[in-house]
Design a protein that fits this description.
Aminopeptidase; 6 helices; alpha+beta; six-stranded mixed beta sheet
Length: 200
């Protein structure tokens, strides 16, 4: 996802309720704090991944923030949010796997996930991937060491990226088609209503 998706990212995050904002950011972020977060997204440095519904609503998004780390050549931090209506479909896990692959191919050798200890879903995803989880009271930190990229991971990412772009374009075209059909139906209904009034 690039800068053109910024407003959809904003809408997705603003639609999260207080509890979901608390789990995503580690505190109950207000609208102004979310605005600052979205405005500060660096699409050149970081990677933002998303899953869209058929209505072109962003229902899940992940932020892979790249930064230097003193004990590692490269390190990235992962954060994810899923709309309440889209839970239980594995979207968070899919975005995590996508981010891991991208990080590996970009030369990142470890990934951090900061989460509240009560965010059991995120911590389960991290543990399943092989991350070491350390709990410190209400917060936990998962550390996942990444193997080096291979030809297979590079090819897989190319295929997945192409698939994602195609899927998004098809959803946009389908929505445009549905919108046109809806407008035509409104026009036809208007014509029928006008004929009915004139006949009366």
């Amino acid at each position: 996802m690039g800068p053109s998706h910024r407003e959809r990212i904003r809408q997705h995050l603003l639609a999260l309720d207080e509890r979901d904002r608390y789990l995503r950011f580690g505190y109950a972020a207000g609208d102004a704090q979310i605005d600052r977060y979205v405005d500060g997204l660096d699409f050149e440095r970081d990677e933002i991944f998303g899953i869209y519904s058929r209505k072109i609503q962003l229902i899940a998004m992940a932020h892979l923030a790249l930064h230097a780390d003193a004990s590692s050549a490269n390190c990235a931090e992962f954060g994810v949010s899923v709309a309440s209506a889209a839970r239980g479909r594995g979207y968070g896990a899919r975005l995590f796997e996508r981010a891991v692959m991208h990080a590996r191919n970009g030369g990142v050798d470890k990934m951090l996930i900061h989460a509240l200890s009560e965010n059991t879903v995120m911590l389960k995803i991290a543990r399943k991937a092989g991350a070491e989880v350390q709990r410190e009271g209400p917060e936990s930190e998962a550390l996942l060491y990444l193997p080096a990229a291979t030809l297979d991971t590079r090819m897989s990412e190319m295929v997945e990226e192409q698939y994602a772009q195609t899927d998004y374009r098809l959803k946009v075209q389908a929505k445009q088609f549905r919108d046109i059909l809806g407008q035509l139906q409104e026009v036809r209904q208007g014509v029928r209503d006008a004929r009915g009034k004139s006949a009366a």
